[in-house]
Design a protein that fits this description.
Layout (H helix, E strand, L loop, with lengths): L17 H16 L6 H25 L3 H27 L5 H37 L19
Helix pairs in contact: 1-2, 1-4, 2-3, 3-4
């Protein structure tokens, strides 16, 4: 067997998820692209915006260590953080911290994150329904898997 084609797997499996990498890329993008706050109100906006962008990746990481139902719950919390970022994007644009181009880039990032998380949630739900069907046909399965070994890392 050729070991050169084996994929390196991270100790922390969530680091192998594309959705996690995309979420951390978004947080980094926010830090590098938001304008310089001129007053306390803008500083509060920037801090809140950054916090919400961090929450997207943090909830993906936290949820990945849980069972599939809990992971789905944490992914939905990540989607809530995305909606917060949409609001902060609009306010950043309205207050001059984002120009129109950066506003559009932020929205595109967030739409892609939403689609990716939605696809991962559907994948988890399909996996759960398959396990229930297998259980109903007297095949024993464990619905409390606490790792993401069986999840496609393309999300």
């Amino acid at each position: 067997m050729d070991n050169t084609q084996e994929k390196n797997v991270s100790f922390f499996r969530f680091e192998d998820l594309r959705i996690y990498a995309k979420a951390t890329d978004y947080s980094t993008w926010i830090i590098n692209n938001i304008g310089h706050p001129e007053n306390d109100m803008q500083r509060n906006l920037v801090n809140s915006f950054c916090h919400s962008s961090y929450d997207i990746a943090l909830n993906i990481a936290e949820g990945s260590s849980r069972n599939k139902n809990q992971f789905e719950h944490y992914l939905k919390i990540s989607k809530s953080a995305i909606r917060e970022c949409i609001v902060y994007t609009a306010i950043a644009f309205n207050t001059g911290l984002f120009d129109e181009d950066k506003c559009n880039q932020s929205r595109e990032f967030l739409m892609e994150l939403t689609r990716m998380i939605g696809a991962l949630i559907i994948s988890l739900q399909r996996g759960s329904s398959r396990r229930h069907e297998e259980y109903d046909s007297d095949t024993t399965t464990d619905d409390t898997t606490s790792d993401i070994d069986n999840i496609d890392t393309n999300f």
